[in-house]
Amino acid sequence: MTDVPDLQSQSDQQSQSDRHSPLHAEHLALDAVMVPFAGWLMPLRYSSDLAEHRCVRRAAGIFDLSHMGELRVEGAQAGAALDYALVGNLTAVPVGKARYTMICAADGGVIDDLVVYRTGAQAYLVVANASNAEVVFAELLARAAGFEASVTDESAQTALIAVQGPHAQRIVTAVTAAGDVDAVANLKYYTGLPATVAGVEALVARTGYTGEDGFELFVPAARAAELWRALLAAGEPAGLVPAGLSARDSLRLEAGMPLYGNELDRTTTPFEAGLGRVVKLDKVDADGAPLAFVGRGPLAARRSSPPARVLVGLEGLGRRAARHGFAVLAGVEKADVVVGHVTSGAPSPSLGHPIAMAYVTPELSAAGTLLAVDVRGRAEPVRVVALPFYRRPQ
Amino acid sequence: MSTFPADLSYTAEHEWLAQGDPVAFGITDTASEALGDIVYLELPAVGDEIVAGAVCGEIESTKSVSELFSPVSGTVVEVNQAAVDDPSLVNSDPYGAGWLLKATVTATGPLLSAAEYQVLTAG
């Protein structure tokens, strides 16, 4: 066998340098397999990747996302600073709502994809991927320099716990302070508010990365373990299980959600990824003049020119899964013609066949197009399908 | 916790090998735990020649793909169709119902005892 990680020595080496989540002791107590991820030691799985994935689809899962970056932007011009720094229109976001957006480089390449919560008239919480948290903080600091706005990195003091799945509302409201239950239960997708959960002051948001209903709870790191335990205990009758990064990845892939480093990177603009809608070229300043933002020129040019490659979904017609980096071929009979590459791929636990996301040339991107993927030297047939692969039953 | 049956031989590539000729082999408990949930097995067919130390199949889990190395040289006489149909058997019972292949033996590669393999996997 190859590729069997030496888990014991790996964790011995890694624990010297990798940061620990505030929930580290909880994961060890639950016998999680811990792996290094973006400079952190995080739970890969507690029991079984498939079981955790299925529990999130059928009941609920609880995830530790404390490795994510939390950056607070505050001040009279906090919104204006973010309008300049990011591709979205953040001054237009009402208090209590969230936006999926991106921070791009001057050439339009994606530095990170972000979720930004407006927590007050002059306050925003920017959530960045763990691998990019420091870069995003530095960029926001630099880009906000000309504005009356402060940028604070609160990642180290903040824990993030997600409860995702059809039973998430029942579980979260079971430990929510009586006065906050209705407000939490009535949260719409992509909204958030302060609430007391298991006695802990939290920002409770109806957001997630699984394709299911669910909540993300931002809490002080020092209070994370008591909230985690309270949620696990309250959720047990509803089938809640702890879920690791492996299930998180297969869930987001089925939901067709991009992962930075796979579908998005510095060489990609939001348009290739099919996410051009997040780029608000119609942003205007107080006088109605077009608003400058970092990357605007190249992004405007990109929007009006056809992309060289587009992100598509692929469903495997065989049983071998296409994985990150594999070549996409023009077809089983045209295996010598490379037409793109796979960005993410895995066997789909919910669908029972392999799925993948890939960049391909636009003329081959229509749903139904038959292509192939080079799976270790053999052309495996795949079909282009619309994203997402999985939609939760309404 | 991984188990290491004393009546089996092992390879550094995490295969186990029973006694006898033809001989049954599969992957160890340690390997199946490290791989996570196994969802697909690609195995040779009955009658195929296999070579000690050479790749004779693929084991795909939700997270990764591993090559299966043959611990012996010989000819495949039986493939565990039950495990091909339900690869989770390799996770649940790697030394029993999750065996992979049976082959006649003309030569064996370097093998380890259970104690030696346990030392190897303890890092």
Provide keyphrases for this structure.
heterodimer, A: 394 residues, alpha+beta, Gyrase A, domain 2, Elongation Factor Tu (Ef-tu), domain 3, 6-stranded mixed β-sheet, 6-stranded antiparallel barrel, 10 helices, B: 123 residues, OB fold (Dihydrolipoamide Acetyltransferase, E2P), 7-stranded antiparallel β-sheet, 20% helix, lipoyl (chain B), GCV_H/Fam206 (chain B), GCV_H (chain B)
**Name of the CATH architecture of chain B:** Beta Barrel
Percent helix range of chain A: 10-25%
Task: Specify the CATH class of the domain at 4-64 and 157-254 in chain A.
Answer: Alpha Beta
* Average residue pLDDT of chain A: 95
What's the shape of chain A? globular
CATH classification, class level of chain B = Mainly Beta
How far do the termini of chain A sit from each other? 43 Å
Strand content of chain B: 25-35%
Total strands of chain B: the figure is: 10
Organism (chain A): Pengzhenrongella sicca
Enzyme class (chain A): transferase
Keywords (chain A): Aminotransferase, Transferase
Catalytic activity (chain A): N(6)-[(R)-S(8)-aminomethyldihydrolipoyl]-L-lysyl-[protein] + (6S)-5,6,7,8-tetrahydrofolate = N(6)-[(R)-dihydrolipoyl]-L-lysyl-[protein] + (6R)-5,10-methylene-5,6,7,8-tetrahydrofolate + NH4(+)
